[in-house]
Amino acid sequence: MIGFSWRFNKSDGGKAFIPLTWCKHSHTGRGEWRWKSWAVPRPLYRLDALAAQPEARVILCEGEKAADAAAKLLPGWVSTTSPNGTNSAGKADWAPLAGRRVVIWPDADVPGVEYADVVCRVLAAIGVTATVITPPAEVKSGWDAADARAEGWDEERARALVGQAR
Q1: Which of 102, 103, 106, 153 has the fewest CB atoms within 10 Å, i.e. the most exposed one?
Q2: Sign (positive or negative) of CA dihedral 84, 88, 91, 94
C-alpha cells in the first residue's frame, strides 16, 4: 500500500480530494502517514489490480469514484484513473498501461473531453492506442460511471456503451 485518496464532500456541495501517503521523514528517516500527494510521476489508482490482471482490458475513468463504479459494472476489466483529478493527468505514471487495451470513460462535460484528450496523447507516447466512450446524449453534464451505476445500469448496458467507444 502506498497511499489512499480520500474524498471529502463539502457543505457547499463541492468536493475535495486529499491523498494520505506513506512517507519517509527527511530528517529522522522514520516512516509515517502524511496528508500530501505522491511525487510526480504519480501512481495510478488501483495499481494492485492492474498488476494482478496483466491480460485484462482497462477501463480508465475520470476520478476514483467513477473507477470504483466501473469495476463493479465491468467485472473482468480493470478500472483505474490518474490521482488528483482532471488537471493532473499529465502528472501520472501511465507506464503500467503499456501493451494494454484501454478504453477511456470520461465525464460528460468539457473537462471530461479535455481529460480524455490529454490521456490519449500521453498513452500514444508510450505506444498505447486508447478508444474513448461518448457518453449518451441524454445524460446530465458531468455524468460518469458512478452515475450510470446509481441509475441502475448493469454489465450488459455498460458493455454496450464500451462497445461504441471510438
Answers
A1: 153
A2: positive
